[in-house]
Amino acid sequence: MVRAAAPSDSDTTSFAARLVKKAASRFRRRESDIDPNVVDAVEKGFDVDYYITAYPDIAAAGVDPVEHYLRHGWREGRNPSLAFSTRFYLENYPDVAAAEVNPFHHYLTAGKAEGRIGRHELGFRWDILSRLKPVADQIAEYKSHRSPVASDPRALLQSRLAQALAKYRTKLLLSFSHDDYTQHVGGVQLLLRREVELLRADGYLQMHFYPVHPLPFLDTSGEPVQLGVLLDGEPVGVFDPEDIVACLTHADALAHDRRFVIHNLLGHNMDQVIAIITASDAHQGSFWIHDFAALYNNFKLLRNDVEYTGVPKPGTLSWELCEFARADFSHRDEFAKLFDRFAIDLLSPSRSALAIWEEAGIHVPRSSRVIPHVTLREAGAPRSHEAEEGQPLRVGFIGYPADHKGWSVFEELVLKLGDDPRYEFHHLGKGRRGGLPVTYREVVACESEPDLMRKATAVTRLDVAIMWSIWPETFCLTAYEALAGGAAIVTNKCAGNVVDLVEEIGPGVVLKNEADLFAAFETGDILRFARARRSVQHCHLEYSAMTLELLEGGA
Amino acid sequence: MKVLCFSSFSFSYLNRARVLYQSLRRHHPDWHLVALMTDEVPAGFAFDVADEPFDEVVWHNELGIDNVEGWLFKHDIVEICTAVKGPFLAEATRRDFDAVIYLDPDTCLFNPLSPLLELLEHHDIVLTPHLLEPEKELGAIIDNEICPMWAGIFNLGFVAIRTTGEGARFAQWWSDRLLEFCHDAPAKGLFVDQKWCDHVPVFFDKVKILKDPGYNTASWNINQRRITVDDMGNVRSNDSLLRFWHFTKLGPLGDTMTRRYAKDQIVVYELWRWYRAQVAAATSKGIPDRYWAFNQFADGTPIQRSHRLLYRERVDLQKAFPDPFGTGPSGEFSAWLRAEGLL
């Protein structure tokens, strides 16, 4: 089922106005001590719909968005609309910052007339960089949000493990990832949910470990990392690492065939992971390249979270400039412990991810191979859509609106060309963003219906999907779904697996940079990808057996 | 090639200078690094060259300038810190070095200056222009093209010379002029040490006008240079390796100019972010904000620019008050200013 959360109303002005009215009525305004003149002035330029969708915590709290912005939002660097950047305005006009007045109110009542600029043209990377904190501060912030979790007793794990082994007996696969894949939504989580089903069918007991508290880095604090444990996809509890090690060490009835698979170690302590694997006496292991945490402290390989220009190398200027390189730990050194200790088979979901890994030459696996999570199989013959000639090009963003997935670039494209009758903009996925003339269709895939995004692409008749990832995606499921649904892909040269897809399968185009993207739309060159001007091949998605492909291959 | 490299600054720029000298030590460990300082050590601040990333300190009163206090008083901080460059450059040519390089304290090396040393094999004087190409937009014409027409075509945040031949002749000429006319007075055709050097390509031979965009990149030319990181991790300015950046005006004004001209060149902001952190780490708490020993009379009364201009213009006052900062044999200059209703 594909749900449309927004009407397919192309009259964007009235659409936006209706949303604002509807959204505004949902919030309570407190008896306010704020000057009503300030409220009135700010309300006139405030985009409630933008605010509550860009900052879901405000919507969840049910507070009045304008009041929130006036009291707290501007001090937190939040923006009142897409047309005004609070952080930029305060940085660019120190006199306003020094006066400690609300910057948006200043802009509306004085700054605009004085010729001051409300929205910068420094690009979304400037926003990311201005928000970026040193790694130690990022970690401290993550840890400050943690609530204590009580560990379960060792005996619980012992008994549950014994029961499970009694059932499966011979084959045990220790599995590691960054969160509870049964509870969180995401590409890797979906694949892990598939994998546990396949393992069960093949007689493997999957014993899965994830850190209870998430962290986008390895935990090198030296403190024990509490782990959540799943057996066969079922939650067992939260355990201290020493209890896990003890259970595995003293489990006499352990399976004969003991292996491990690393999906993701963010949030884990590497020494702890090695101790757990060692205690299990697992003799074979595999390692999935779902991201590049093993090669660099920024798991997306982005320098300062803003740009990919290859794997950063120590001693270079780009290394020195990067906050992530300046951390007091090194992911590559930590992962070296793992690769030095065990013979590991490297599994890559894409050709490009393996190429990056091999070119970096940082860790040497026992073997390596590419196993795409998905392959495309043609569904019927290509179709012609000549009858649609003359309709606006349907341009879509697919997935959650995140900077590293290219949302900001899509947003800028919409802001530039929202009024251009040649184009119609769509967002398929979750996390609607307001303030833009974009038709939103909520699509949330689940393992029972993994095919929703392909269907949504086909039903919306997207001509073009903007898949402007700024990091080298190891595997981009949405790009496969877009192609399978008949869309052409527009991407950039840094986008990793998305580039593979365009070059190996297509249709689509790999552009050099954002300037070329905007030029392709402004000149109309991109219109060549309209369904009306090409034959459209729909495809089915066929999922791989994940780690089992290696295990069954007898490696 | 035996190289002496120096910068000129006061204690308020020691943090920036430290970042520069650290970069020089990293890329050219064999160079002799000199700090030319026009200041006095702040009270309570322990200053020891052995703890600093340079080899030698030369103070303004070690340059053999007659009545240095009177000469100093005629200048504000920018004028004097640029004026002393000339006398020291001339002195350095008489030392045992093949080349002398000057860099402003707010510059920083990101790659070795080896190609510059090769240029100095065949040239005696190397200068970098503010701007390498004509501008297109009105604002940029005003900021970047017109400004150098009164402030000087070449940016004297950098100059490199051979210590012999035309290099030595230039050093002496520049020193002579700066001793008399290192003034911020555009209406008189003067802008400190810089405007003088418009004459250099005419007055001297073996001058190299270095147009490599890897040198002396700054907010005033960033709109003509594309700053990128290549796949080897190098920062490039157009196609050149970035050699040194001129971090002019660290603070809100510099940030505003950078944003105006760097626009969406993200590497520029990353460089500034890095530089700000380096300067913060190199800042000593013992140096008061905006400290300069010669900002005030001996009794602590602040000196206004008008006092300096008056003293500069009036030979009688110079004779009457040879040490205008403090108590002279014929009384205090500050007392005279008070009596005249000027203080």
Q: What's this entry about, in short?
A:
The complex is a heterodimer of chains A (555) and B (343). In chain A, 39% of the residues lie in helices and 16% in strands.
Task: Describe the SSE topology.
The complex is a heterodimer of chains A (555) and B (343).
Chain A: H1 12-24, H2 36-45, H3 48-54, H4 56-61, H5 65-73, H6 86-92, H7 94-99, H8 103-111, H9 124-131, H10 135-144, H11 154-168, E1 171-176, H12 187-201, E2 204-211, E3 227-231, E4 234-239, H13 241-250, E5 257-262, H14 270-280, E6 284-288, H15 317-321, H16 331-341, E7 344-348, H17 351-360, E8 367-370, E9 374-378, E10 383-384, E11 393-398, H18 407-417, E12 423-429, E13 439-442, H19 452-460, E14 464-466, H20 477-484, E15 488-492, H21 497-504, E16 508-511, H22 514-523, E17 535-536, E18 539-543, H23 547-552
Parallel strand pairs in A: 1-2, 1-5, 5-6, 6-7, 7-8, 11-12, 11-14, 12-13, 14-15, 15-16
Antiparallel strand pairs in A: 2-3, 3-4, 9-18, 10-17
Helix pairs in contact in A: 2-8, 11-13, 13-14, 18-22, 19-20
Chain B: E1 3-9, H1 14-27, E2 32-37, E3 56-59, H2 68-73, H3 77-83, H4 85-93, E4 99-103, E5 107-109, H5 114-119, E6 125-129, H6 138-151, E7 154-162, H7 165-181, E8 184-185, E9 190-191, H8 200-203, E10 207-209, E11 227-229, E12 235-237, E13 240-241, E14 244-246, H9 252-262, H10 266-281, H11 305-313, H12 315-320, E15 327-328, E16 331-332, H13 333-339
Parallel strand pairs in B: 1-2, 1-4, 2-3, 6-10
Antiparallel strand pairs in B: 4-7, 5-14, 6-7, 8-9, 11-12, 12-13, 15-16
User: What would you call the structural class of chain A?
Assistant: alpha/beta
CATH class of the largest domain in chain B: Alpha Beta
CATH topology of the largest domain in chain A: Rossmann fold
Question: What would you call the quaternary organization?
Answer: heterodimer
Label the structural class of chain B: alpha/beta
Largest sheet of chain A: 8 strands, mixed
Kindly state the percentage of residues in helix of chain B.
Answer: 25-40%
Overall, the morphology of chain A is globular
Strand content of chain B: 15-25%
* Spatial strand sequence of the major β-sheet of chain B: 3-2-1-4-7-6-10
Number of domains of chain B: 2
Say what the CATH topology of the largest domain in chain B is. Answer: Spore Coat Polysaccharide Biosynthesis Protein SpsA, Chain A
pLDDT average of chain A, as an integer? 90
CATH architecture of the largest domain in chain B: Alpha-Beta Complex
Measured by residues with Cβ under 8 Å of the partner chain's Cβ, the largest interface is:
A-B, 25 and 25 residues
Number of helices of chain B: 13
